[in-house]
Design a protein that fits this description.
It contains 14 helices and 13 strands. It is an alpha/beta fold. Among the domains are: 24-119, no CATH class; 128-204 and 257-305 and 343-374, Alpha-Beta Complex (2-enoyl-CoA Hydratase, Chain A, domain 1), CATH 3.90.226.10. The chain has a 6-stranded mixed β-sheet, sandwiched between helices. Strands 1, 6, 7, 10 and 11 form a 5-stranded antiparallel β-sheet that branches. A two-stranded parallel ribbon has the order 2-13. Strand 3 (136-139) and strand 4 (144-148) form a beta hairpin.
Length: 375
């Protein structure tokens, strides 16, 4: 018999016994890990942009290393999947997360590092904190009004709009919009705020939808919940008719439909490391369109302002969920994450430690900013 044929048969027999020797639990974990990797590569909207930024070699080495650790028993699925997702989460976009205890512990450690980096006094004097921001609309002093918006969730939209009307009815000329601790929701809450803060147009940003069957589920589910949503219906029809990998969702940010208002003399947007997603939209708008408003803080925002329209996919065996973005803004391609880091940086650095109490009160940050606006 030909030696080449014999060798092929022996290799096939060896491979068969090797596969059979793998425990079923490891097979399932490997299947989940491979599914996670292929799913992210195919459906995670910023993936191509990240690879274009020169991270291909680092990414390939990471995913292969984690798979090897899983095979060798050096890591379980939770650890391997966490380290894989955390690579994106810690460097590029915090709209990607894994629904696992291991990931949430790693997420908490990163948050703690951000706190200590922003405020070194936390290391030596942690003290007691009451950091649970609540809606506020009140006068700080004769010139300044405070609006605190702790969330962009739908049930708080009316309150945020009413607060703006209260400011407009006041005799105050300066406005502080406090979005510390605001984890996002819908940025529609800011539409009337934009009208007051707008000063000049800016290059329009495009939102790109990664057109895959899995990602279309986001819009189809939205349409089921909101049958009257013309935007969802239009995007579904447009995507299903297109063969393009990315579909243009729309342009935003040029402010061409807004009018400059003279109602506000000066404005401040208060941010912290927990200001995220739809809340970051307000800070981003001010950066691009306003001369009278500045972003105040001691560190960057959370870091998920350039992606959106998120959904969850579950791994086939463990049912661990990966939460990820189906759209990416054109600004993601332009941002240098290695030098700028995640999130939006403040224009004005507040020279105070993190507020010890932030509920429905006027805290020391607000007082500091109110004085700064006067000057």
């Amino acid at each position: 018999m030909n030696k080449k044929i014999i060798l092929t048969i022996l290799l096939a027999i060896t491979a068969k016994f090797s596969i059979a020797a793998v425990p079923d639990s490891l097979k399932r974990d490997l299947e989940d890990y491979d599914y996670l990797v292929s799913f992210v590569e195919e459906n995670y909207a910023p993936f191509d942009a990240i690879m274009q930024k020169g991270y291909k070699r680092e990414y390939k080495a990471l995913k292969n290393k984690l798979r090897k650790q899983l095979c060798n028993g050096e890591a379980d699925l939770g650890r391997a999947a966490t380290d894989y997702v955390l690579w994106f989460y810690s460097q590029f976009d915090r709209h990607i997360m894994l629904e696992s205890e291991t990931f949430h512990m790693a997420e908490a450690n990163l948050a703690q590092e951000a706190i200590f980096k922003s405020d070194s006094t936390m290391l030596t004097n942690p003290g007691s904190f009451e950091y649970a921001p609540m809606p506020v609309s009140c006068k700080v002093d004769s010139l300044t009004w405070l609006i605190r918006v702790p969330s962009c969730e739908q049930d708080l939209h009316e309150g945020a709009i009413n607060a703006l009307q209260q400011f407009l009815a006041s005799d105050c000329e300066n406005l502080i919009i406090d979005i510390r601790g605001n984890g996002g929701g819908s940025d529609a809450v800011w539409e009337q705020y934009y009208d007051l803060l707008y000063d000049h147009p800016y290059k329009s940003e495009i939102k790109w939808f990664l057109n895959t069957p899995k990602n279309l589920l986001f819009w189809k589910n939205l349409l089921e919940q909101q049958p009257s949503s013309a935007n969802a219906r239009y995007l579904i029809e447009k995507s299903e008719a297109s063969k393009d990998k990315f579909v243009k969702q729309g342009e935003s940010g040029d402010g061409s439909t807004l009018q400059t208002s003279t109602r506000i003399k000066r404005a401040a947007i208060l941010i912290d490391f927990m200001t995220a997603s739809a809340a970051e939209s307000l800070a981003e708008f001010v950066k691009k369109h306003s001369d009278r408003a500045k972003v105040y803080g001691i560190g960057n925002t959370f870091g998920c302002e350039l992606t959106g329209n998120c959904r969850t996919e579950r791994l086939p065996n463990s049912r661990l969920g990966v939460f990820y973005a189906t759209t990416v803004d054109s600004g993601f391609y332009e941002k240098d994450f290695s030098s700028e880091g995640l999130g939006i940086a403040p224009d004005v650095l507040i020279t105070l430690p993190i507020a010890r109490k932030l509920t429905d009160n006027i805290d020391e940050w607000v007082q500091w900013v109110a004085e700064d606006l006067k000057n």
